[in-house]
């Protein structure tokens, strides 16, 4: 998938009303492909969900959650990188998470999409497991390697951040 294939021109979406729905969803599909192709270590994590290495921080194990919703792409870095930082690290911006829309004068810009608590739960479990393993190793008298210690710290920060993020 190349940039040229990325998006139907906006005019096409407006005039081709008969195929509006197809164009609309193809558009978000091609944007998703564009984004996923620019990440390393992408693996599917269920239907319309992926995990990949975050491009905005040194990421040994994939800590970037990606989800395709009908009308937008959700991304979340568990090490705490902002959506903007993740996107700019791969040369994209917020508009690349949404289908092209006709600009409405005075309409607010779309906000960064957010995961629901339910959607964050599997990734919270993953981070909690890493913490649990580290805790078990330390309480068993093992010394964690520096890289494992860093990963445990990342998990610790991710859990704290999630706790504040899912509060209403
Ligand atoms: Zn990150």
TrEMBL record:
Any one Gene Ontology MF annotation carried by this entry is: zinc ion binding
Q: Which domain of life is it from?
A: Bacteria
Q: Which GO terms describe its biological process?
A: DNA replication
Q: What is this protein called?
A: Zinc finger CHC2-type domain-containing protein
Q: Which organism is it from?
A: Methylomonas koyamae
């Amino acid at each position: 998938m190349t940039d040229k294939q990325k998006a139907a021109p906006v005019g096409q979406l407006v005039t081709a009303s008969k195929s509006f729905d197809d164009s609309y969803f193809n558009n978000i599909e091609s944007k998703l492909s564009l984004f996923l192709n620019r990440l390393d270590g992408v693996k599917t994590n269920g239907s319309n969900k992926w995990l990949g290495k975050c491009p905005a921080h040194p990421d040994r194990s994939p800590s970037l959650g990606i989800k395709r919703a009908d009308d937008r792409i959700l991304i979340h870095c568990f090490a705490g990188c902002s959506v903007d930082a993740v996107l700019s690290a791969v040369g994209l911006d917020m508009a690349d998470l949404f289908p092209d829309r006709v600009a409405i004068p005075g309409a607010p810009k779309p906000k960064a999409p957010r995961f629901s608590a339910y959607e964050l739960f599997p990734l919270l479990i993953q981070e909690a497991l890493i913490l649990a393993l580290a805790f078990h190793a330390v309480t068993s008298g093992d010394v964690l390697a520096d890289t494992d210690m860093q990963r445990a710290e990342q998990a610790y920060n991710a859990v704290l951040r999630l706790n504040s993020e899912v509060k209403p």
